[in-house]
């Protein structure tokens, strides 16, 4: 096991031990029944559930049902058909390639400051950098006019809200009463769709960017980050191996067949995205990347596939390009035991 993979494993073993044990036990079979749960680990089977099986998006045992319960109706994950298509259309211009290009200046200054700090011999906590990047991006997406200190506060409030919700939904020892920290901090300024967008953008950025920076720093891949083409391949590979949303809970709306097995609405389908993209055994490689059809699955598939994929790739690409100038190394890493998704709480780097 490479030092990068060994370090990254700690975000699972320290912060999501139950999830890690569940995943480790199920990775060899594409489909495995555990009581009323079916663990789906095969690539074709996970894709088939997302694209071919009619799903009940409002069931309490799914992401959509959990979001509906906490945030109210109309937050994409819980929608279907025409209603869902209309919500996606209302988002499209903000997240397509022109939308992403318009958002880029929001995080560019944050990256300039981070590089300046490292050049001056300072220590940079990449988790705080991720909060600043996602806080600014989210404020722009939601049209919130915030003062400079409030961006990170928006990100923290979104993370804490998602963390409380996840403790109730995911296989975990931790139990927390749900609290809407976002509403407490920002009052009625965020509607259910905006709130869900904030949670999706902030939690995934906080999970992905620090873990990606740690992996690149541990492998010493900063030269790859200086070349735009190689960097783009590396970004795809890092997102595949980090699989920031490693497990998607879903429920079929009616009986269906997946991988030759019958599933019914009584079963909770635990889609192990991490295994479906081979993240657990195939390291990132710029020279021999996994096929794009495989790595794209980290963003889901079918009508609900992640609309923020282009944004997530652009942000990681920009972070790696900026940091490659100073080739940082990791001096301290601490897993976040409360985060909704496997993540570092502190990932401190210094210039080499
Ligand atoms: C590395 C970062 C990210 C990963 C791995 C990721 C992954 C996912 C996955 C797996 C889904 C479920 C897809 C399905 O059910 O088929 C999803 C949905 C979604 N994501 Fe992301 N995401 C990321 C970043 C973002 C960002 C930055 C945003 C917003 C700016 C975002 C917004 C959404 C929304 C709104 C949905 C719900 C889509 C729907 O139900 O129609 N995501 N994402």
Automatic annotation (TrEMBL):
It comes from the Bacteria. InterPro entries: Cyt_P450_B (IPR002397), Cyt_P450_CS (IPR017972), Cyt_P450_sf (IPR036396). Gene3D superfamilies: Cytochrome P450. SUPFAM superfamilies: Cytochrome P450 (SSF48264). PANTHER family: CYTOCHROME P450 YJIB-RELATED, P450, PUTATIVE (EUROFUNG)-RELATED. Belongs to the cytochrome P450 family. This is Cytochrome P450. It comes from Nocardioides plantarum.
């Amino acid at each position: 096991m490479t030092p990068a993979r060994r370090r990254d494993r700690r975000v699972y073993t320290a912060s999501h031990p139950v999830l890690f044990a569940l995943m480790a036990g199920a990775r060899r079979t594409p489909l495995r029944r555990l009581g009323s749960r079916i663990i789906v680990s095969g690539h074709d089977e996970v894709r088939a559930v997302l694209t071919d099986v009619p799903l009940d998006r409002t069931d309490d045992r799914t992401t959509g049902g959990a979001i509906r319960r906490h945030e109210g109706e109309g937050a994409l994950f819980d929608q279907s058909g025409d209603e869902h298509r209309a919500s996606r259309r209302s988002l499209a211009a903000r997240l397509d390639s022109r939308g992403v290009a318009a958002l880029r200046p929001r995080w560019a200054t944050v990256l300039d400051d981070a590089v300046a700090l490292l050049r001056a011999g300072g220590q940079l906590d990449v988790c705080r950098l991720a909060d600043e990047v996602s806080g600014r991006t989210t404020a722009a997406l939601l049209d919130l006019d915030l003062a400079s200190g409030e961006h990170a506060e928006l990100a923290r409030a979104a993370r804490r809200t998602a963390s409380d919700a996840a403790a109730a939904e995911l296989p975990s020892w931790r139990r927390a009463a749900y609290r809407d920290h976002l509403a407490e901090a920002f009052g009625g300024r965020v509607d259910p769709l905006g709130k869900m967008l904030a949670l999706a953008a902030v939690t995934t950025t906080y999970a992905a960017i620090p873990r990606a920076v740690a992996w690149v720093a541990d492998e010493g891949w900063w030269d790859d980050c200086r070349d735009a083409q190689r960097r783009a391949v590396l970004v795809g590979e890092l997102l595949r191996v980090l699989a920031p949303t490693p497990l998607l809970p879903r429920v079929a709306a009616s009986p269906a067949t997946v991988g030759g097995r019958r599933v019914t609405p009584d079963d909770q389908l635990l889609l192990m995205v991490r295994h479906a993209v081979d993240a657990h055994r195939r390291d990132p490689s710029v020279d021999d990347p996994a096929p794009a059809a495989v790595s794209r699955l980290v963003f889901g598939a079918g009508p609900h596939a992640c609309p923020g994929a282009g944004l997530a790739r652009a942000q990681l690409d920009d972070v790696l390009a900026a940091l490659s100038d100073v080739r940082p190394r990791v001096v301290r890493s601490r897993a976040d035991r409360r985060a909704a998704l496997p993540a570092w709480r502190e990932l401190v780097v210094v210039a080499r």
